[in-house]
Amino acid sequence: MKALIDKLEKERALSRDEWIALIGGRSETLAQDLFRRASAVRRRCYGDEVYVRGLIEFTNCCKNDCLYCGIRRSNRSVSRYRLTEGEILACCREGYGLGYRTFVLQGGEDPAWTPQRLAALVADIKAAHPDCAVTLSVGEHSKETYQLWFDAGADRYLLRHETADDAHYRFLHPPEMSPENRKRCLWDLKEIGYQVGCGFMVGSPGQTPAQLAEDMLFIRALEPEMVGIGPFIPQRDTPFGGRPAGTLELTLFLLGLLRLMLPDVLLPATTALGTIDPRGRELGIMAGANVCMPNLSPENVREKYALYDNKLCTGAEAAQSLRSLAQRMEGIGCRVVVSRGDHRKL
Ligand code: SAM
After folding, report:
1. From CA 37, how far away is CA 6, in angstroms rounded?
2. CATH homologous superfamily of domain 2-337?
3. For labelling alongside 80, which of 49, 113, 146, 208 has CA 20 to 30 A away?
4. CB-ligand 1 contact for 229 (6 Å cutoff)
5. What pTM does this model have?
6. What is the layout of strands, in order, in the sheet containing 49-52?
7. What are phi and psi of 231, to 5 degrees?
């Protein structure tokens, strides 16, 4: 197995069978060796810097019905909300004061947010904070719509591919959603010029090392600037509510592998990782991640963006606790910086 990690570090690619063997052959000793190498690679590219993004979950209304997701349209137990433009701009103002220079607008696919309305909001945020980056994460749209938002000033786009294995994708999603369209969106976003993030849940129902190998091959081919991975965590009102959560160990291992495969990638230690373990964020950074995305949404809506059970939204998770997050990062030899934290091409 060590030979495969050597090869990955040198060539930044493995074959399908090699990925399956490496992911399936994970051990504690191997993981520790991987994390040491991944941290060294991260340091070579980004030094000791950890980037923070203010996450604004601006709507939990969604027209989709993904089987794993707590805000899926058929979940009647969700108390739905959508922030107004004024509320979102107030979040950005507060975030700017706290030191955030990237705002991530994430939400369900909410028809009330027409392409034009979101474009106007992006333009307003950029006008108010020209030194900040705006990241959108609002699902699947036409290339024209993505172009409209890019022209309005959006810099980055997060769209997890969820799984690169087509049959697995169909297992996790309703029939009206397709893996082809998900991937088409990612290629369109790249072509337009966004810094693009794809990603997947670790331990999603039905996932095997073979599917994770497909994910690694897809990510290698796409060469995204960002990759968002975090453990799947069940949400009780969804069809997968009784499934086991993904593990901390496998998530950390995959973070390390991603850092070796794409040395300059922006890699968040996600909220889901912090939710399954109190030290999840720190462990994620030590495994190779270099981004944290604390929550900047107004406190009265945070609990309503319940993608999964017990989702963290307070403590170091809250954007207002930047000081405590910074201290936690200092504790592991890293430094939270006030910066847009753009992707750096090696
Ligand atoms: N609607 C946008 C989209 O489809 O990209 C953004 C919002 S969506 C809720 C953001 C991400 O949450 C998804 O890409 C998915 O990977 C993650 N997610 C949803 N349900 C989850 C769960 N039960 N456990 C962990 N992550 C989950």
Report:
1. 10
2. Aldolase class I (3.20.20.70)
3. 146
4. no
5. 0.97
6. 291-292, 49-52, 335-337
7. -65, 145
* Nearest one of 261, 301, 345, 321 to 18, comparing CA atoms: 261
Protein residue whose Cα sits closest to atom 25 of ligand 1? 232
pLDDT, tens digit only, all 346 positions of the chain: 899 999 999 999 999 999 999 999 999 999 999 999 999 999 999 999 999 999 999 999 999 999 999 999 999 999 999 999 999 999 999 999 999 999 999 999 999 999 999 999 999 999 999 999 999 999 999 999 999 999 999 999 999 999 999 999 999 999 999 999 999 999 999 999 999 999 999 999 999 999 999 999 999 999 999 999 999 999 999 999 999 999 999 999 999 999 999 999 999 999 899 899 999 999 999 999 999 999 999 888 998 999 998 888 766 667 778 888 999 999 999 999 989 999 988 7
Judge if the beta carbon of residue 109 lies within 6 A of ligand 1: yes
Which of 201, 237, 238 to mutate to test ligand 1, by most ligand atoms within 8 A of the CB atom?
201
Residue having the nearest C-alpha atom to atom 12 of ligand 1: 307
DSSP tag of 183: H
Nearest ligand 1 atom to the CA of 69 is: 20
Domain boundaries, the chain: 2-337
Among all chains, which residue has been given the structure tokens 């969700």? Answer: 78
How many A from CA of 11 to the centre of ligand 1? 31
